[in-house]
Amino acid sequence: MFADDHCAPSPRGHVLLAPDRFRGALEAAEVARHLAAGLRRQRPELPVLAAPVADGGEGTVNAAVAAGWRRVPVEVCGPTGRPVTAALALNGDTAIVELAEAAGARRVPGGEPQPFGGTSLGAGQLMAHAVRLGVRRIVLGVGDAACADGGAGLVQGLGGRLLDALGRDLPPGGTALRSLHALDLRGLPDLSRIEVILAADGAGPLVGRGGTAMTQGLRLGAGREEARALDAGLRRWADLAEAAVRRPARERAGAGAGGGAGFAALAFLGAKNEPGVTFMLDLFGFAEKARDARLVVTGEGSLDVRALRGGASATVARAAARAGTPVVAVTERRSLTGERLRRARIQAAYTLTDIERDLDRCRRQAGSLLEQLTVAIAAEWLPPARAAAR
To answer: How far apart are CA 300 and CA 31, in angstroms?
Structure first.
């Protein structure tokens, strides 16, 4: 644990829990739930407010529900073609659609990624359901996709058709796009009055050396030759799509996100690309919740140099600093020194591996370890009023 001795506990009201997920262990909402359980055991009289952080990837809908949004379950097509029950989050006239809900690794039998035949069709079906609900804004989070079809399935899920030279519908997947001959977009809904936001962080273009096939395709298990075939399919898709909608998008920021689903959102839906974490914090009203908080507890799986460049903890800490609220972080492991943490506006960091050094056991027991960390957090940052006065 690192703590800044010069930062005194705040005397204000509630404790705001705003962690990101611990990848491979817990979703953000689960992290917040364990932190809340531990804090309530230590200081049952303190109000605790959960506001899990989301970036558009897996767990975004759950984070929205934890922030008070309504879960709307929908039966859609999973990445392998099997039906799955996914969900979108709804708040007023805004819907959050999470690609991973319909086409993430947990929707694939055995968790095996689908770089060639996997489809994003279910995400398009979720969006189509949101349109039928009468929303005026759709936030599309495209992180953690288990497919790389360039968003072709998403367009099909919205009602578009992808046809081969004989006028037959193409089979799913990115490599099948090499046989794409024509698009029939007459079935797409009118989205002219619906704002579409693409929540994506740090994604490159759709095609080429830094594109979907050569980055996400390889990460999903494609070999070099297979990745080249996938890239050829995505190029064919981009050529016909951009000609059809007259909106170049393959090189735009976010186009390669979600196995290329970002491209489909930008080209066909006129989506506006927003940084995932920052946008979600604004969407969930983080600034207002932090303004009167006594303490903000954030966190993520690893606090390292990369986490300082747009990671959840650093983003939350900057937003909390603007509200004048101190921030502590919980993490599985960290490599940052105290000075770097202070520059990131994080006053203290509490690490699971300080309690359990075996990383595998640490991940399996992450929930109970997080609850143990709250003992130190409560003692150092949330003393009872009389103790704080002394």
So the answer is: 9
What average pLDDT does this structure show over 121-139?
98
| pLDDT bucket at 387, cuts 50 / 70 / 90 | low
Amino acid identity of residue 100, one-letter, is A
Report whether CATH 3.40.50.10350 matches the domain 2-51+287-389: yes
Token pair, residue 316, equals 């939350």
Radius of gyration of the chain (CA): 22
CA-wise closest residue to 376 among 328, 326, 321:
328
Tell me what pLDDT residue 180 has. Answer: 98
SS3 192: coil
- Of the candidates 2, 28, 32, the residue with the CA atom closest to the CA atom of residue 343: 2
Q: What's the whole-number mean pLDDT along residues 201-222?
A: 84
Check whether 112 has a pLDDT greater than 80.
Answer: no
What is the maximum span of the chain, computed from C-alpha positions, in angstroms? 82
| Domain boundaries along the sequence of the chain | 2-51+287-389, 60-277
Taking Cα atoms as reference points, which of 155, 141, 147, 245 lies closest to residue 199? 141
Q: Are 108 and 80 a contacting pair, CB within 8 Å? A: yes
Q: Quick check: do 2-51+287-389 and 60-277 share a fold?
A: no
User: 60-277 falls under which CATH superfamily?
Assistant: Glycerate kinase, domain 2 (3.90.1510.10)
User: Which residues are within 8 A (CB) of 348 and not within 5 positions of it... i.e. 6 or more apart?
Assistant: 1, 2, 3, 4, 7, 328, 329, 341, 377, 380, 381
φ/ψ (deg, to 5) at 189: -70, 160
